[in-house]
Amino acid sequence: MAEAGAQERTEAPTVKRREDARKEGRVAISREVSSAALLGAFALYFLVAGQSNLLTIEGVWQDTFQHISSEELTVAHVQRILFNTLLATAPFVLAVFGLAFMVGALASVLQVGIMFTPLKLHPDRLNPISGLRRIFSSQGVADLLKSLFKMTVIGVVTYTTYRQDLLPILTLSQVPVLGIFAFNFALLGKLFGKVALALVVLAIFDYLYQRWHNEQQLRMTRQELKDELKQTEGDPQLRARVRQIQREMSRARMMENVPKADVVVTNPTHYAVALLYDREVMDAPRLVAKGADFVAQRIREVADENDVPIVENPLAARELFQHVEIGQEIPERFFRVVAEILAYVYRLKGNTAATAAPS
Question: The pTM is what?
Answer without folding.
Answer: 0.47
